[in-house]
Amino acid sequence: MTDANDTREDRDAVARLLLQQRAIAEFGLFALREPTLQPALDEAARLASEGLGCPLAKVLERLPGEGRLLVRAGVGWRPGVVGEATVGADLASPAGFALQTGQPVLSNHLSGETRFRTPALMAEHGIRRAINVIVRGDAEPFGVLEADSPDPGEFVADDILFLQALANTLAIAIEREIGRRKAEERQALLLREIHHRVKNSLQLVQSTLLLGVRELEGDARRGLEEAAARVKTIAAVHDRLYKGTSLLEVDVPAYLDGLVADLRASLADAGGGRSVELAAADPDTWPADGAPTLGLVAAELVTNALKYGRGTVRLFYRWLPDAGEITVEDEGEGFPADFDPRRSCGLGMRLVTAFARGPSGGIAVDRDASGGRIVVCLPRQG
């Protein structure tokens, strides 16, 4: 009878070992293919649970300066735990004990432990036994990979080897993510420096044009003043674009709101103290290389409304599937009856018309509005 039991236990042990080996191989391939970190964290928790035959597992991330570990990924926990719950990172918890001592923890009887307490989160789920290992990071440990079970039974020493193999593979994915973030930070710093220099160059061009104004009169003077004003507008559009939190995409409402504030300040004299406001803007994002078109068109239309209209100037933005719709209105008498923006000789309106070309683009004057109102559809870029 004893021999039969031993044989069955041996078979179970071999099957468990094969399952764990497959899980390690599977996770290695997954981590190599997956470009982002969170799916790798989720998969590590899933495979830890599967490979150790326990219903709960989690990846805990160390929160520097807080003395806590965040449940970054997990399986088997109640809703609201993953991504929100934390446990202590001190010696009084199993995960904290591993983090502080640098040694894995294997406890098959948490209720009788003298090394640490059972955290409230684990007690809530009825956890009887736990096993964990450290997940290495860049200079400091990233956190802990832990498997927990409310069922009677035992983890064995070889289970630590399995869990550590998963953690080591996960550490490679973490290192790759840290490297990617550092590269993005360096690129962002370089881009901001380039954009700062572009802004300074545009300001230099504007100053040079204004110096030439002093020597001219009549149409030549007005033309040079208009060119200087347009360069100033381009500088404002460029500056506002790279004040955002991302260099890859632009939050349109925030971008236009900031641009309106810049225009309000820079065109105060031309507007005679009139109000300029972003009246409404649908939530939307545009790629950073397409956003200057939005900004330039908005700036041009607002400038024209201040120059030729009256009263408050209002800017509206509406999301369309293939375009972004910009509307600018004022409280003046409106556009002349024979005005056609597509045939305008003004440089600014010609630019707006060029930007609005395309199947989803267009430009139109709203003749039914009580004041001046022009609507421009800009084809979505990116």
Could you please describe the fold and organization of this structure?
With 382 residues, the chain is α+β, with helices and mostly antiparallel strands. The chain has two domains: 2-180, GAF domain (Beta-Lactamase); 246-382, Histidine kinase-like ATPase, C-terminal domain (Heat Shock Protein 90), CATH 3.30.565. It is 49% helix and 19% strand. The protein contains ten helices and 13 strands. The protein has helices spanning 2-33, 37-52, 94-101, 120-124, 157-213, 218-241, 252-266, 268-271, 291-308, 347-355, and strands spanning 56-63, 68-75, 86-88, 105-107, 129-135, 143-149, 249-251, 276-281, 285-287, 313-320, 323-329, 362-365, 373-379. The strands form three sheets. A six-stranded antiparallel beta sheet has the order 3-2-1-6-5-4, sandwiched between helices. Strands 8-10-11-13-12 form a five-stranded mixed beta sheet, with helices on one face. Strands 7-9 form a two-stranded antiparallel ribbon. A hairpin with a 7-residue loop joins β12 and β13. α5 (157-213) packs antiparallel against α6 and α6 runs antiparallel to α7. The chain starts with a helix and ends with a strand.
